[in-house]
Structure prediction request, 113 residues.
Amino acid sequence: MYSRSYSVKETWIIEKLFRQQQGAAFGRYYILKARPSKRKHSRFLVSVGKKIEKKATQRNLLRRRTASIIKQDVIPVERQQQFDFLIMAKQQLKDAPFLLCKKDLKSLFEKFA
Prediction:
């Protein structure tokens, strides 16, 4: 997992990200929403709904996999502008291999680089 300083914690920001229509990118396994931030680094929020997997242990596994991709491949990339990101899992993520998830998520983040 990435450190807590990279997490979005404020409720009002989370609500704005969920309601936001523009600034979204759609991939095969993820939906990525971004909101510009004035912080010195980007922050992330990973959401895996009950519709995707009923068992909490499986949802947490998908969340940890996504966080691992973010830690390895997204945080080290330098950006000119920082964002608050909301990463929402899609139904197909449940059966997807890790490498395809990684490729999909990296391509979504490249749109905001």
Observations:
- The first helix runs from residue 11 to 19.
- DSSP finds three helices and four strands in the chain.
- The chain has a mean pLDDT of 86.
